[in-house]
Amino acid sequence: MKRTIAILVSAVGALAGVLLWLGVYDISATDQHLAPTYWLLDTGMRRAVIQRAKRIDVPPLDDATKVAEGAGYFKALCAQCHGAPGVSPEPFALGMLPVPSNLAHSARTWREAELFWTIREGIKMTGMPAWRHRLDEAQMWSIVAFLRVLPTLSPERYRAVAATAPLPAPTVRRSTPLLVPDPARGRKAIHQYACVTCHVIPGIVGSNAPVGPPLGGVATRAFLAGVLPNSSDAMIRWLVSPQTISPGSAMPDLGVTVQDAADIAAYLATLD
Amino acid sequence: MKLWRVLGPGAALLALIVSACSDVEPPHASGDAQNGRLLLRQFGCGACHRIPGVATADGTIGPPLDAIARRVYLAGRLPNTPQNMVRWIRAPHSVDPSTTMPDLQVTQAHARDMTAYLYTLR
User: Fold this and answer.
1) Which of A10, A225, A249 sits opposite B10 (nearest CB)?
2) Residue A176 Cα distances to A173, A261, A265, A266, A272, angstroms
3) Chain-chain contact of A227 with B61 (C-beta, under 8 angstroms)
4) A12, B8 Cβ separation under 8 angstroms
5) Minimal CA separation from A85 to chain B, in Å
6) Bridge partners, residue B73, by sequence
7) Strand partners, A223
8) Of the candidates A10, A17, A222, which has its C-beta nearest B7's C-beta?
């Protein structure tokens, strides 16, 4: 019995390995998954969101100014991919697979906490970004407040609402970290600022592109960017505004908050 | 039969897949790589940089030069080509006026040989 299971497992594994190696699976965005694969991924995604949203408390969302504020964020941050009543998604979004959902439908089929969780955390491999490093909780809840109203809007009414929606207020940036710098948070933030696309960083899965220097042992390096004497404070300043410290550097200003920079620096300091 | 005897071939296949993943190789640079290796030592590059294959080159002032041939930018701004590496070695301040990388008066021929060696690190 044990032997049969072992042979079976190994045969399936070997077959999967061969298919993987031969590049059989079509990963193009012009070819939808097979129906069983789609069902598996879609169900897994839905269950994961539902489970994680359970612990979230929903604040009052009926306030009209909240809804209006949310309309502004929706128009600026959501509609270009998801479209809106009578409004097409942008051309680039039409080329995505999965194509971003119609949010009037999503708003009717997902609970408030689930919408909030999805906005805050994003969803891997769907193109849905996490907004938690870009918006604060109140801003994200305002989007949920607007989403609740969205299915009730005719295309004509949406046009009117969108025309008068306030422009999103720029996020206020703190100049000092509010929380004690935390390497675990920094590890997550490293993905949220695309650090992994340019640096090899020990302990970070998927950081394998040597565009800039590798970051193993970076805390013990004497200079950052070849110009800035290194310290934990210097690292934070560099992460927040590289173009001020080394104008013309290929390292862009990524809008890193001081808190996120402090957390990232704390993670980098743990690397030998 | 032991479990591993059955799982063995699967593991071997997986190892093959993982090890055989490769991408497009960076170019090689012309010049005398072995001479370049000696020059990197003589010019004291290792005081600031970790350089695989160069004795005592374990500095941590600047970035390590492991797999430098694959790096996309030099000095955080210069597209990495053999010609640009020669330029960066010879005249760092012409690339970044505020860099701590010193101008070590390296000749064109020496910089070419150093570059030839550095381009073997991939």
Assistant:
1) A10
2) 9, 10, 14, 15, 27
3) no
4) no
5) 44
6) B79
7) A229
8) A10
- Assess if residue A28 is contained within a domain: no
* A29 CA: distance to closest CA in chain B (Å): 22
Helices marked H in A83-224: 91-94, 103-109, 112-121, 137-149, 155-164, 183-192
Query: Looking at the domain assignment, is residue B3 inside a domain?
Result: no
What CATH number should be reported for the domain holding residue A222?
Answer: 2.60.40.420
Top residue of B49, B96, B103, B118 to mutate, by most chain A CBs within 10 Å, is B96
- What is this structure's pTM? 0.86
A212 touches chain B (CB under 8 A): yes
CATH of residue B104? 2.60.40.420
CA distances from A132 to A3, A51, A129, A252 (A): 49, 19, 9, 20
Residues of A in contact with B72 (CB under 8 A): 198, 209-212, 250
Please report, for the domain that includes residue A147, its CATH number. Answer: 1.10.760.10
Is B72 within 8 Å of B55 (Cβ atoms)?
no
ipTM entry: 0.79
Is residue A131, in this structure, part of any structural domain at all? yes
- B18: in domain: no
Tokens of A174: 């703190």
Does pLDDT of A31 surpass 70?
yes
Residues B79-114 have pLDDT tens digits of 999 999 999 999 999 999 999 999 999 999 999 999
Task: Encode pLDDT of B48-64 as tens digits.
Answer: 999 999 999 999 999 99
**Per-residue confidence (pLDDT) for residue A141, from 0 to 100:** 97
